[in-house]
């Protein structure tokens, strides 16, 4: 009996040792810029719980060392370090060796504002952080959370292009929260398990540019029910902004969505096949209409974007939503590109 238990323990020990060396071989440094904010803190917490992450580098203009000290006590293996600009090289030190950089740094909306109203403040925050990433970790996957995503992704691309290091396969606008909402809201209407709902959402990340494709999941809503569902997905962010009454926008659900997208990238980077997520990327799908970035299902691989899937079959109503989306998106992209060129 004792011998049998000892044998089991030694087998388990070997399995654990193998798992440990596999993790060590897949060591991944992940940086969060804006780590002390409403999204940054829970996002950093979720990344600390992810065994695929070996080093967590947390940067903010204020408060990152405190967040790092707190999170570092959690009993998972990854190391955590906080950086703040009191030392001039802090951002460089944070980004050195990073393979994934998540950027939630920037101001959130208050009631009555659109995401585009954040442009004037957030454009320069994202530009400056993108410059630091382009200089320090040009090969990292850059995940843009800061709004307005439809414009901050093109701004980031322009920064990387100006430095001669742009790799369209490694730049992602995080639209996962739209997918999470679309799946949760249909499950509330249909009394299904939201974990098994996978509603594709295409386009961009604001208002009419958010286009959920229910028909591809086999659903057909009609009339007011359909319109209310679409409106809730397109304006889910406003629901949270209103409810928080001036204290910011979605942070906890966004942290979950950002951590889920980072996990998908890590899985793909570590060799898992067929990892697919909708995300806003440099896309050929509507380039002929001047829409150079677009969110659709994207297969992820070790080098980032592996394959960009077309939107697929749409019903007539989805087609009409897509047309409105493309018009708005084109304007948001041009605004970002124009600003980045004028404000290098
Ligand atoms: N993509 C999405 O689906 C999605 C969802 C929710 C929120 N957002 C956006 O994410 C952004 C952050 O939202 P939040 O609620 O976390 O805001 P927040 O104000 O709570 O946190 C932002 C953090 O960024 C930091 N920061 C500001 N300038 C910085 C700089 N130059 N370098 C480093 N850090 C800097 C701030 O100190 C703060 O800690 C907003 O723009 C918001 O609109 C996007
Ligand atoms: O609505 C916002 O401003 C934040 C975010 O983009 C969201 O969708 O919740």
TrEMBL record:
It catalyses: (S)-malate + NAD(+) = oxaloacetate + NADH + H(+). NAD(+) binds at residues 34-40, 60, 122, 145-147, 254. InterPro entries: L-lactate/malate_DH, Lactate/malate_DH_C, Lactate/malate_DH_N, Lactate_DH/Glyco_Ohase_4_C, Malate_DH_AS, Malate_DH_type1, NAD(P)-bd_dom_sf. Transmembrane segments: none annotated. GO terms for biological process: malate metabolic process; tricarboxylic acid cycle. GO terms for cellular component: mitochondrion. It is an enzyme of class 1 (oxidoreductase). Belongs to the LDH/MDH superfamily. MDH type 1 family. This is Malate dehydrogenase. It comes from Oleoguttula mirabilis.
């Amino acid at each position: 009996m004792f011998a049998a238990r000892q044998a089991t323990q030694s087998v388990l020990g070997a399995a654990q040792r193998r798992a440990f060396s596999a993790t060590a071989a897949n060591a991944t440094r992940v940086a969060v810029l804006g780590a002390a904010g409403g999204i940054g803190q829970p996002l950093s917490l979720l990344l600390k719980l992810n065994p695929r992450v070996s080093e967590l580098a947390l940067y903010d203009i204020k408060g990152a060392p405190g967040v790092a000290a707190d999170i570092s006590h959690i009993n998972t293996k990854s190391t955590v370090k906080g950086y703040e600009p009191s030392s001039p090289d802090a951002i460089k030190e944070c980004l050195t060796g990073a393979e994934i950089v998540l950027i939630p740094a920037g101001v959130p909306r208050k009631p009555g504002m659109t995401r585009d109203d954040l442009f004037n403040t957030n454009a320069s925050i994202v530009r400056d952080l993108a410059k630091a990433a382009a200089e320090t970790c040009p090969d990292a996957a850059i995940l843009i959370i800061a709004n307005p995503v439809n414009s901050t992704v093109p701004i980031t691309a322009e920064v990387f292009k100006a430095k001669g290091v742009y790799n369209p396969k490694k730049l992602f606008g995080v639209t996962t929260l739209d997918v999470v909402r679309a799946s949760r809201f249909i499950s509330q209407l249909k009394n299904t398990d939201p974990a098994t709902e996978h509603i594709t959402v295409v386009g961009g990340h604001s208002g009419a540019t958010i286009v959920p494709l229910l028909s591809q999941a086999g659903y057909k809503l009609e009339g007011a029910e359909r319109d209310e569902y679409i409106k809730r997905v397109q304006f889910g962010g406003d629901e949270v902004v209103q409810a928080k009454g001036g204290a910011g926008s979605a942070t906890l659900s966004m942290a979950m969505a950002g951590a889920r997208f980072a996990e998908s990238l890590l899985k793909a980077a570590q060799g898992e096949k067929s990892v697919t997520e909708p995300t806003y990327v440099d896309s050929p799908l509507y380039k002929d209409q001047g829409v150079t970035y677009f969110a659709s299902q994207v297969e992820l691989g070790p080098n980032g974007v592996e394959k960009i899937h077309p939107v697929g079959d749409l019903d007539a109503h989805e087609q009409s939503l897509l047309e409105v989306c493309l018009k708005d998106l084109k304007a948001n992209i041009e605004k970002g590109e124009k600003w980045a060129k004028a404000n290098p």
